[in-house]
């Protein structure tokens, strides 16, 4: 099992900051992002702030 190096750890002051950093790693301007709803509204706004287009998709209940 590989250990995490200190250089691979990011500490943020709040959850929204962590979500912004994570989104910056995977999305940016002109990207399309799919968001399964319902969800926390900030999760849709973060990619928009970065210039991405957000498409919302309703959640399907697959329980029997």
Q: Any chance you could write out the topology, listing elements then pairs?
A:
Layout lengths: L14 H12 L5 E6 L4 H8 L3 E6 L6
Parallel strand pairs: 1-2
**Would you tell me the overall average pLDDT?**
90
Question: What share of the residues lie within helices?
Answer: 25-40%
- The largest beta-sheet arranges its strands as 1-2
Rg, Å, rounded = 15 Å
User: What would you call the structural class?
Assistant: alpha+beta
Rough shape? extended
Low-confidence stretches: none
**Main sheet specs:** 2 strands, parallel
Number of helices: 2
Q: Please report which band the strand proportion falls in: under 5%, 5-15%, 15-25%, 25-35%, 35-45% or over 45%.
A: 15-25%
| Topology as a string of helices (H) and strands (E) | HEHE
Number of strands: 2
Q: What distance separates the N and C termini?
A: 38 Å
Protein model, in words:
By secondary structure, the protein is an alpha+beta fold. The chain has a domain at 15-58. 31% of the residues lie in helices and 19% in strands. It has helices at 15-26, 42-49, and strands at 32-37, 53-58. Strands 1-2 form a two-stranded parallel ribbon. Strand 1 (32-37), helix 2 (42-49) and strand 2 form a beta-alpha-beta unit. The longest helix has 12 residues, at 15-26.
């Amino acid at each position: 099992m590989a250990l995490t190096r200190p250089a691979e750890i990011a500490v943020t002051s709040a959850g929204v900051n962590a979500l912004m950093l994570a989104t910056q790693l995977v999305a940016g301007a002109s990207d399309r992002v799919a968001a399964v709803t319902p969800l926390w509204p900030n999760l849709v706004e973060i990619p928009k702030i970065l210039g991405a287009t957000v498409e919302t998709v309703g959640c399907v209940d697959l329980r029997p």
